[in-house]
Amino acid sequence: MVPKSGQPSNPSWFTPKRLLIIFCVINLINYVDRGAIASNGVNGTLATCTDSGICTAGTGIQGDFNLNNFQDGVLSSAFMVGLLIASPIFASLAKSHNPFRLIGVGLSVWTFAVAGCGCSFDFWSIAICRMLVGVGEASFISLAAPFIDDNAPAAQKTAWLATFYMCIPAGTALGYVYGGLVGSIFNWRVAFWSEAIFMLPFPILGFLIKPLQLEGFGPTESKQTLTSIEADVSENGDDDMRAEDQAFIRGSGLKSKLWNQFTRFSKDMQELLHDSVYVTNVLGYIAYNFVLGAYSYWGPKAGYSIYHMSNADLVFGGVTIVCGILGTLAGGVILDKMNSTIPNAFKLLSGATFLGAIFCLIAFLFKGLSGFIVFFSVGELLIFATQAPVNYVSLRCVKPSLRPLSMAISTVSIHIFGDVPSAPLVGVLQDHINDWRKTSLSLTSIFFIAAVIWFIGTFLKSEDLFNKEDEEESTTALRGKGEPLLEGSSEASSHA
């Protein structure tokens, strides 16, 4: 069905760079929350008693709610419930509703959920709030990357993605520092309330600004369906029809629309799961994220135990901020210089992960803190260089209309099979062997599995489908190839 009106007029204030900045700030706040809940200042410790009977009160969430390591690890993974349910929903709704409005809805849920974490009173209350946090991430993560890829200059697309994904390690590490300071000076609850205040302007912005559209998606598909139904009613003489008959026709149209969305989602999922390039990329990302998720959650505690860091939050957070920013940006720039192709992305993914794993393994063998910091820093630089290439593959190996679903399923997969089980499983392993050095070495070795999987990807036949027309989407035919979605896109591309 051809839309009755053309594409909405371009927003006057939004330019690609401003959009990138907004998305980066939102992503940063999202991952500051991840780092804060893992920090010693917010997460805290259990109460302890010496053999002589001297007891020290517990601190933070773990101390206030008396959580064991498994329950504590579950808190880091609880967001996955909301993410798992909401990601496919938001990705599917993007075909019939404005994606930027969907982001506004998700971030509203995120803001209220984080504020609820600060008001929680036991394990289950905070766990439920953490589940709702995943709803906000689902709306944002699956839609932000396609927006950026649509509007980035042609020669700098991977660098722009790297800038966005740089906020993941930087935000997580900043969260360690933020949580450590706020938790020690005020209270762990204040850290969550402050995050909600920082995020509040962005869901409001999502509802107030002029709508923005994604490449390959119709702006008024749902309205068109209703218009078509109403037109059919009118042609059949709805003035002479009973109200019950009109309601039945409209209800039938709604059921048909929901069924069509379900069948389209099923078809899209089958297409993704039969794409060997996409599946290989996600499998490597799962193994990679299994390690990185456990690092981000247990890192401060492991550093405190192995190297007796009294300021583990600040040290671990500081190293991760610097290495995360430099490594992620370097990965994007290097791939652009190599010529951004899917095979080159797989080469960079496998090589950087393999070398990074070696440096991280050697780091945990050092008994001294200085040797650990030097080698672990180099390892993190290499490990974080994968952030832009891995998401570049997920975006470019599918056609434009599948990109939100591609990002959603990738995000769900790396969490449900990666960092969600890794945090509690590492907690169980540590409870069993009671040696953070051995636990860290065992965990780090999984990086080699990710490197091997991505190495296999270099031999797969791949095609960049960024400019492939989707025959099922009428708006793709109406919108010319390469036409900018925002004001300034063409100008930015010409200066690239």
From TrEMBL:
Pfam family, one: MFS_1
Chain ranges passing through the membrane: 74-93, 100-117, 123-147, 159-178, 190-209, 277-298, 314-334, 346-366, 441-460
Compartment(s) of residence: Membrane
GO-annotated cellular components: membrane
Keyword Transport: yes
Region of interest (Disordered), ranges: 471-496
InterPro entries, A to Z: MFS, MFS_dom, MFS_spinster-like, MFS_trans_sf
Name of the protein described by the UniProt record: Major facilitator superfamily (MFS) profile domain-containing protein
Signal peptide start and end residues: 1-34
Species of origin: Trifolium subterraneum
Keywords from the UniProt entry: Membrane, Signal, Transmembrane, Transmembrane helix, Transport
Membrane topology classification: Multi-pass membrane protein
PROSITE patterns: MFS
Keyword rRNA-binding tagged: no
Listed GO MF terms: transmembrane transporter activity
